[in-house]
Amino acid sequence: MKPATKWIAAIGGLLGANVVASVVLATTAARGASQVIPDYYESGVHYDTAIDHAVASRATGWRVHATMVGTSLVVTVRDASGALVDGARVRATGYQRAHASEPFALVLAGVDGAYRAPIVAPAGTCDVELVIERGREAYNQHLVLEVP
Fold this sequence. Notes:
By secondary structure, the protein is an alpha+beta fold. It has two domains: 1-31; 40-147, Immunoglobulins (Immunoglobulin-like, Sandwich). It has helices spanning 3-29, 40-45, 47-60, and strands at 63-69, 72-78, 89-96, 99-111, 114-118, 124-134, 137-147. The chain has a seven-stranded antiparallel sheet with strand order 1-2-5-4-3-6-7. Strand 6 and strand 7 (137-147) form a beta hairpin. It is elongated, with a radius of gyration of 24 Å.
């Protein structure tokens, strides 16, 4: 085989591999709906509000621990002295990253200082906004959780 023929075959092979890779990527990307983060623009517009909420959350002195137990989100809230915070209203909203078009909203029920609710989301990494309110105090936190 002549050197010129080898070069033509190599270039043709690379071009063919590029076409195959493009077809595979196009068909893979076309599965499902567009995965745009819910309210992405609005969260950017209200970024100053998010900063204000973070400052107010730190001012409460609360320490929040959130974890997944099975398919349930469990949140414990302690005040600055370490005592459990009872009687709070705890809400969580979020979405599984691969299924951003299917958001979820939870109201967690409190029992003995722990707040719990089952997450009905596909398994995987979830972005969750946690809002805890008791009286005039409010605490906001963004979480990244793995749902089994």
